[in-house]
Amino acid sequence: MARIVLTDVGVVLGGVDLSDHIASVEISQNFNEVTTTAFGDGGVTRVAGLEDSSLSLSFHQDFATSEVEATIGPLVGGTASFEIAPYGTAVAAAGTAPRYSGTVLVTEWTAVNGAVGDLSTADVTWPVVGQVAKGTGA
Amino acid sequence: MSWRVTSSRLAWDAGTVLSADDLAGCNIGALVQGGHLEPVTKSKRTPPVQVPDDPQKKKAKPVEPVTEDELAEEPEEQE
Fold first, then answer.
1. Could you tell me the residue range of the domain that residue B16 belongs to?
2. Which of A35, A104, B48, B79 sits between 20 and 30 A of A6, alpha carbons compared?
3. How far apart are CA A13 and CA A9, in angstroms?
4. Which residues from chain A sit within 8 angstroms of residue B26, using beta carbons?
5. Tens of pLDDT along A107-129?
6. Which of B23, B26, B35 has its CB closest to that of A70?
7. B53: in domain
8. B30 neighbourhood in chain A, CB within 8 Å
9. pLDDT digit string, tens, across residues B53-78
10. What is the DSSP string of chain A?
11. Which band of pLDDT confidence, cut at 50, 70 and 90, is reported for residue A80?
12. How many structural domains comprise chain B?
């Protein structure tokens, strides 16, 4: 695969495809750092601890039926599955296109945000529950 | 229990009827609330509506007793 310019990232939240209302996505995979330094070590030694990842999204707000507010509103305070396909859902059958999936805790939601003349957006960062899984294809 | 897809944002086409197994892992309540699904209620056969009979129709006409004389009465022949 060649370099990729993100034009058609598939974003599915709680089983709902909201890709056409999302302008930015970021999966941040982090691991706690656990020091294992012991006597005799010349420096600090470390191993990866528990995964503590997050998913950041920038939504275009939409209050219509079955759109952004109707979909995310009921999820606030609970968990939701997510699936991110950098090449879009249409090329899933290609087999080598990556797909990231997992569960997030919907800890925040900004239903209304913006100044006069602005597009109403909602930028969120939700912590991942457990681990982010990476797969390919469908 | 099953649900019908009502939006175009799910992996299934609108109108598809799904079972709980199909929706495993999904927050069904949130999907219903969000207008993506609607519960499908099984149609029960309802008994036909009983329309009360017309009281006037129900009133049977009293049968007049036929006397022996009437039975014996022959129509008169005209010459």
1. 2-40
2. A104
3. 13
4. 14-15, 81
5. 999 999 999 999 999 999 999 99
6. B35
7. no
8. 14, 71, 74-75, 78, 80
9. 666 655 555 666 665 665 555 555 55
10. ------S--EEEETTEE-GGGEEEEEEE--EEEEE---TT-SS--EEEEEE--EEEEEEEP--STTSHHHHHGGGTTSEEEEEEETT-STTGGGSSSEEEEEEEE-----SS---TTPPPEEEEEEEEEEEEEEEE--
11. very high
12. 1
Single-letter amino acid, residue A79: T
Tell me if B54 is assigned to some domain.
no
- What is the Cα–Cα distance from A27 to A4, expressed in whole angstroms? 16
The share of chain B scoring above pLDDT 70, in percent, equals 53
Residues A59/A124, Cβ–Cβ less than 8 Å? yes
Q: Which residue has the tokens 């999302």?
A: A22
Does B78 fall in a domain?
Answer: no
* Spatial distance between the Cα atoms of A5 and A87, rounded to a whole number of angstroms: 9
Average pLDDT of chain B, as a whole number? 78
- The answer to whether residue B47 is domain-embedded is no
